[in-house]
Amino acid sequence: MTYLTNEDVRDDIFEAIAIIFGLNILDFSQIELGYMNLNWKIKTDDYS
Question: Which residues, listed in sequence order, are joined to residue 40 by a DSSP beta bridge?
Answer without folding.
Answer: 30
